[in-house]
Structure formats: structure tokens, C-alpha cells
């Protein structure tokens, strides 16, 4: 009886542990990594527990930046091999990381336990309309379906069609060259970066929007060498001159229409009759 209860407890604990690992993996890791399906933004994680020690994996997952800055040879090699893209730091406990690693070790419960043929490119069949829609979504001219912030509020691209871009985050002009369609789409669909993840956590980007934005960023990457930074200097000079003229004329009109005398002037100037 006791043995049966112990066995049930172990099975229950393992199921919960694996479930947490799956949730954490899909939340933060799946945007950049696969398990047995080849490299994406980052390396394929199949058999990662056999390639690196547990201590190394715990430290790297918590802060790849710290590992790279410490001079760790493996961390630096991964950083260079994968286009110098830093993996975001993760405020996970050792238990949470172990849950993720256990999920990976089990093959991802359907994520793929052997190398699979590459998936079809999501940009197959896209048209100029997809690119145009992606541009409107990027700069906010068209709202995202679920109300998330538009990309240009934080990012910029080298595209003279975009009037204004953000400077709070990375320039995305060459993001497609570094990540490819699968990598760009994965990050757009399931952002692994903390600020971006929070911004879209309750405002997910739809599959169609992912395709349109990815198509647009591919177009930006291909056309960036032909773009010239837009110069709006003359526009602002002209606009400023027009505003100044309007304010100036309004001031003159109001000045000549002003009341030149006191309100009671007419009453005070009437001849008064003295009654004896």
C-alpha cells in the first residue's frame, strides 16, 4: 500500500514538473529554439544536456551575457555562431530550469525527437499587398487586430516610406538577413524578450499579421541599400512659416478689434444735470 502511494506521488510529481517545463519552454524558448528540428534563431536543443554540464546550462540560461563577458569559450562561440544575438536573461529558479531541461531531454513531448525536414517557408506565395500591409502594421497606420503596440513605437528600419521610427530598441533593417523568415516569424509570434513579451502578452499577433510583418522586414532587408534617410527639413520650415503667419495675422486682427476705451466710458462722458 505504501509502495503504491509512493509510486503515485512520484508519477504525479514528474507530471507536474514536466508540465511546468513545457509551459516555460513554450513561453520563452520556443521562439528561438527547436528540439530536434534544426537551428532557428538559436541552436537546436536536442541532446543539449549531453553536450554541456548542468552547472554550465544553469548559468548560461540565467544570463548568457554574464557568461560571454566572463570569457567562457563555449558561450562566446555560440554568440559568434548565431549572429551575435544575445539570449535574454531569465529570472528562473534552478528548479524551473531543471524542469525545462527535463522537458527538452524527453524530446519536447511532440516537439520532435529527430531532425526533421525544414518546414515550408511561411513567405511562399506572399504578394506586394502582404508587404504593403506589413508596412502599415509596422508604422501604426493600420492597427494590430488584438490592439498591441505598433513596431515603430520602439524599432526603426531604413525605409523612406516610414515617417517616424522609435529608438528604444534594435534597428530591424537587417533582422531578416540575420534570422531568416522562420526566426523573424518566431520572435514576432512569441516574443522572448521581457519588455516585448509583456507588451504583447495580452495582445497576441495573429498568424496573418506575422506573415505580413515578416514579409515587410524581408523587403526592408532587400531594399535598404537603395533607401536614403528621409529629409523633412523643408517640410518643417514650410509648416513653421505657415503656422507663424497664421498666428501673426490672428494677433493683428485681434489687436485692431480690441476695445480701445473702457467699458463705462460712454456713461462717464455724458453731461450730468445738477438738480438744485
Structure description:
The protein is built from twelve helices and no strands. By secondary structure, it is mainly α. It folds into two domains: 104 residues, Cytochrome Bc1 Complex, Chain D, domain 2, CATH 1.10.760; 149 residues, Cytochrome Bc1 Complex, Chain D, domain 2 (Orthogonal Bundle). The longest helix has 28 residues. It is elongated and about 110 Å long. 27% of the residues are buried. The N terminus is likely disordered.
Descriptive key words:
single chain; 2 domains; 12 helices; Cytochrome Bc1 Complex, Chain D, domain 2; elongated; disordered N terminus; mainly alpha; 276 residues
Strand content bin: under 5%
Please give the largest β-sheet. none
Which ranges are low-confidence, i.e. pLDDT below 50, for 5 or more consecutive residues? 1-16, 112-118
- The 3D shape can be described as elongated
CATH topology value of the largest domain: Cytochrome Bc1 Complex, Chain D, domain 2
Helix content percent band: 40-55%
Q: Assembly type of the shown chains?
A: single chain
How many structurally independent domains? 2
CA gyration radius, whole angstroms = 31 Å
CATH domain class name of the largest domain: Mainly Alpha
Amino acid at each position: 500500500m505504501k509502495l503504491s502511494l509512493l509510486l503515485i506521488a512520484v508519477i504525479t510529481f514528474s507530471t507536474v514538473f514536466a508540465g511546468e517545463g513545457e509551459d516555460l519552454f513554450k513561453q520563452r524558448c520556443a521562439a528561438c529554439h527547436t528540439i530536434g528540428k534544426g537551428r532557428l534563431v538559436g541552436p537546436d536543443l536536442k541532446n543539449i544536456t549531453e553536450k554541456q554540464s548542468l552547472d554550465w546550462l544553469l548559468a548560461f540560461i540565467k544570463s548568457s551575457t554574464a557568461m560571454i563577458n566572463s570569457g567562457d569559450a563555449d558561450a562566446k562561440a555560440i554568440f559568434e555562431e548565431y549572429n551575435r544575438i544575445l539570449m535574454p536573461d531569465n529570472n528562473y529558479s534552478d528548479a524551473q530550469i531543471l524542469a525545462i531541461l527535463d522537458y527538452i531531454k524527453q524530446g519536447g513531448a511532440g516537439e520532435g525527437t529527430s531532425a526533421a525536414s525544414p518546414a515550408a517557408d511561411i513567405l511562399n506565395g506572399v504578394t506586394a499587398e502582404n508587404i504593403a500591409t506589413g508596412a502599415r502594421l509596422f508604422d501604426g497606420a493600420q492597427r494590430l487586430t488584438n490592439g498591441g503596440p505598433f513596431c515603430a513605437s520602439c524599432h526603426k528600419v531604413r525605409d523612406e516610406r516610414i515617417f517616424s521610427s522609435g529608438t528604444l530598441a534594435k534597428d530591424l533593417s537587417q533582422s531578416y538577413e540575420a534570422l531568416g523568415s522562420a526566426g523573424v516569424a518566431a520572435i514576432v509570434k512569441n516574443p522572448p524578450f521581457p519588455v516585448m513579451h509583456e507588451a504583447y502578452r495580452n495582445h497576441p499577433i495573429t498568424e496573418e499579421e506575422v506573415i505580413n510583418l515578416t514579409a515587410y522586414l524581408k523587403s526592408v532587408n532587400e531594399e535598404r541599400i537603395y533607401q536614403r534617410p528621409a529629409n523633412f527639413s523643408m517640410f518643417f520650415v514650410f509648416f513653421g512659416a505657415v503656422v507663424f503667419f497664421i498666428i501673426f495675422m490672428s494677433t493683428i486682427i485681434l489687436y485692431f478689434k480690441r476695445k480701445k476705451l473702457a467699458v463705462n466710458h460712454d456713461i462717464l462722458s455724458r453731461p450730468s444735470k445738477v438738480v438744485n
